[in-house]
Specification:
Rossmann fold, Serine Threonine Protein Phosphatase 5, Tetratricopeptide repeat, 3 domains, alpha/beta, transmembrane helix, 6-stranded mixed β-sheet, membrane
Length: 633
């Protein structure tokens, strides 16, 4: 062998640098240097623990060499966990995040120094990683995929500067595990960070710090965000979402249909939720198999949110992961993992789909009350409930009758589903309260019977008590109505529906200031609430004499009705009364004219039947206002 032949060695190379280092230095050089020194010691300690050595650490960069890829990857995970936990002590703009890249390649050793393309590739891969994230090359992935209880998402073949061939790159997915072991299987040996987390998690949960740490580490904020200015389509005025095809991470390609099925079912189910704008399947599936970023999807489809996920099978176990990302900020809003036995694959698909749908509704539309809608394992029942709710909220005789049919189907498909019975009872209440029933007394009796059945299934359901509140209101029992409404809020303090319904009760009871406070809180709890919420707060403002605020809300209500969310007769009636209060009689009469086009037989006498004010003076005042606006006797 020639005496001058260089010593070569196959090594795992870990390259790390600080995300946004220049910004940190520009804001506070001394603090940044002090933190960097502390964190370098952290990295060096963990690298030594995992049998590696620090080769170089210029500026904010660090280069380490390992003889084992498994050691290098486990070390990276431990480092990110430790740094993330330490970052909780800093304000958001002072957190110091590291990006880590790992490659297995041939290097030249010259004393303590190493050289070669293996190092360059690690450094380039590091640049692809997010702050707090880890990316590894294909050569490294091939060594760890069956040895570590970790999951990596394939980012495709990436061009690397000064390297002729593209490099396969995989991104570590925190909180998941690889297909090399069955989902749920744990490694016997835990690294230092895992032990620390297990020992400290109870305390962190109690103090609230766990959420900060997990959110920051498990869902690092990417540097690139979607630009609203670059979007090919304007953002809709309600939550907009694209559901990307779920990635099949199983070796068994026959599982591809299961991954596609979950994506398609979620898209189909979301399309029934009127508060959301959902991109169709034929558009999102054009990204199937392509290494795209959520920011690109957002800009090309004109959506704010992107849902992505993966499916992984090992033996008779299957794992589905999903995460919701706000592409305009880069923030991960929600992520979850579902481990199940693979028995009835279609029932399993429905179960996981329902859990994901509920989580999306909680995050983007109905808030916490959506959790109640997800307490069925029957996806068809859920679909009937959503369709019925959309119709019910239109507040017309015809839509109420159709909603009643959907709720009956939902209750039949899942007889133990309390919310399905509750919503069915609501339709009978509406018949009686809004003059749509030939026998109001019989409709109220049916509402009471069904509400009793719902309460028998679950008497802690907030919506059941809101229903009783409105039944009492229809019967003129105002104190009981208020008591039941207050109990509903006690059971569901973050339930927007219960707040808006009690607001209506308070308006009818003449307690207008309390009604306004409840309505405003409901709107805060559910920013994308149904159009009829506006009707309730409009009434409260107007009866409190706050006509300008009532006018603004009334116009919003009418606009949403004219856009198809509801029938506009209540909006026209409210605006007519508000314009009378403002002394703008011509405008009031225009709205009564529009009202009579929708309901030609409407009269002051009929209006009296549906006005529920406790104080007779308030009833007569409301009727007199309608007379002034031109409603016939």
């Amino acid at each position: 062998m020639p005496s001058d032949r260089r010593k070569r060695k196959l090594s795992a190379i870990l390259s790390a640098d600080v995300k946004g280092y220049s910004r940190l230095m520009g804001e506070d050089e001394i603090a940044t240097v002090d933190t960097l020194k502390e964190y370098r010691k952290v990295l060096a300690t963990h690298i030594s623990q995992y049998n590696g050595r620090v080769v170089d650490s210029p500026g904010d960069n660090l280069l380490a060499q390992f003889s084992s890829v498994v050691d290098a990857v486990e070390c990276a995970v431990t480092i990110q966990g430790d740094i993330s936990a330490r970052n909780t002590a800093f304000s958001e703009n002072r957190k110091m995040e590291f990006r880590i890249g790992i490659n297995l390649g041939d290097v030249i050793e010259d004393g303590d120094r190493i050289y070669g393309d293996g190092i360059n590739i690690a450094a380039r891969i590091e640049g692809i990683a997010d702050g707090g994230g880890i990316c590894i090359s294909g050569t490294a992935y091939d060594q760890v995929k069956n040895k570590l209880n970790l999951v990596f998402a394939f980012l495709g073949e990436q061009p690397v500067k000064n390297i002729s061939d593209p490099v396969r790159v995989y991104r570590f997915c925190p909180g998941s595990e690889t297909s090399g072991e069955s989902p749920g299987q744990k490694r016997k040996q835990l690294g230092p960070w895992h032990k620390a987390i297990l020992c400290g998690v109870s305390f962190l949960v109690i103090t609230g710090a766990a959420w900060v740490m997990l959110t920051f580490f498990l869902h690092p904020v990417p540097e690139d965000v979607a630009s609203v200015e670059k979007m090919l389509f304007p953002l809709p005025d309600k939550p907009s979402i694209a559901v990307l095809p779920f990635v099949n991470m199983s070796r068994d390609q026959e599982q591809e249909y299961f991954a596609d099925g979950i994506s398609e079912t979620i898209i189909s189910a979301l399309s029934h939720i009127p508060q959301m704008f959902v991109i169709a399947r034929n558009s999102t599936f054009t990204y199937k198999g392509k290494p795209v970023k959520v920011q690109q999807v957002s800009e090309e489809l004109g959506v704010q949110y992107v849902l992505e996920g993966s499916v992984q099978r090992s033996g008779d176990q299957i794992r589905v992961t999903a995460q919701l990302i706000d592409a305009t900020t880069g923030h991960h809003l929600w992520a979850e993992r579902y481990d199940r036995e693979l028995k009835d694959i279609f029932a399993l698909q429905d179960e996981i789909t329902l859990k994901i749908l509920t989580a999306l509704q909680v995050k983007l539309t109905e808030g916490e009350q959506a959790r109640l809608w997800g307490t069925t394992d029957n996806l068809e029942a859920w679909g009937n409930l959503i369709r019925g709710s959309t119709l019910f909220e239109q507040f017309t005789r015809q839509s109420n009758a159709r909603a009643q049919q959907f709720f009956e189907r939902a209750a039949k498909l899942d007889p133990n589903w309390d919310i399905a019975w509750t919503m069915l009872a609501w339709t009978h209440w509406a018949e009686a309260s809004l003059g749509w029933s030939e026998s109001p007394a019989e409709s109220i009796k049916q509402a009471i019977d069904i509400a009793t059945k719902a309460a028998g299934i679950n008497n802690t359901l907030p919506e059941v008590h809101s229903l009783w509140s409105n039944i009492y209101l229809a019967q003129g029992e105002y104190d009981k109505a208020i008591g039941a409404g207050q109990k509903a809020i006690a059971l569901g303090p973050n339930n927007a529906l219960c707040h808006i319904l009690l607001s209506h009760t308070m308006t009818c009871a003449g307690r207008f200031d309390e009604a306004i406070e409840l309505a405003e809180k409901a709107m805060r709890l559910s920013p994308y609430s149904s159009a009829w919420y506006l009707m309730m707060i409009d009434d409260a403002y107007r009866m409190a004499g706050r006509y300008e605020e009532a006018l603004a809300i009334g116009k919003q209500h009418l606009d949403r009705c004219l856009n198809g969310e509801c029938e506009p007769f209540t909006a026209h009636m409210g605006l007519a009364a508000t314009y009378v209060g403002l002394g703008r009689m011509e405008a009031a009469r225009r709205h009564v004219s529009e009202l009579l086009k929708i309901m030609p037989d409407l009269s002051v006498g009929q209006a009296r039947k549906i006005i529920l004010f406790k104080d007779p003076a308030h009833v007569e005042h409301s009727l007199d206002v309608l007379r002034q606006a031109g409603l016939p006797e």
